[in-house]
Amino acid sequence: MATPAAPAPGFRRIGSFDVVAGAERVARFRAALALGGAGGAGRGEVPVTFPICWLAEPAVKSALLVALGGGGKVPVHLDQEMEYFAPLRIGQPYAMDVGLAGPDARGVARVRADLRDGAGARVASVCGSFVLAGGKEPRP
Q1: Most buried residue, 34, 40, 51, 54, by most Cβ within 10 Å?
Q2: Nearest Cα to 26, choosing from 55, 42, 47?
Q3: What is the value of pTM for the model shown?
């Protein structure tokens, strides 16, 4: 993949992760949201909210928790924003550069993931807010 991009202003760099929207995972995501075949399923399009799943990938989640010092705590997702410059495609590899801002005085942290294609072109920016809740993370 291309060289990682600098984090957005106000965010510190957490890492760069290679991600792919696999056909089976996208199909499960569509089913969970009751999207069925609508919205481009047959054309290789990925639902616009799908990238939020990549923030929960074990390597990404672990890096974020380490950066926040949140060992033993569970991130609770509050909101998300997506900005697209091109549609995501099933099977297309992307570099996801992740940055973190906060937490603020209320304990709210912001995560920003910038997605780039193999040529380094910016495809999307995904932002989400969360807080860390007490307790231990459930075991698989």
Answers
A1: 51
A2: 47
A3: 0.83
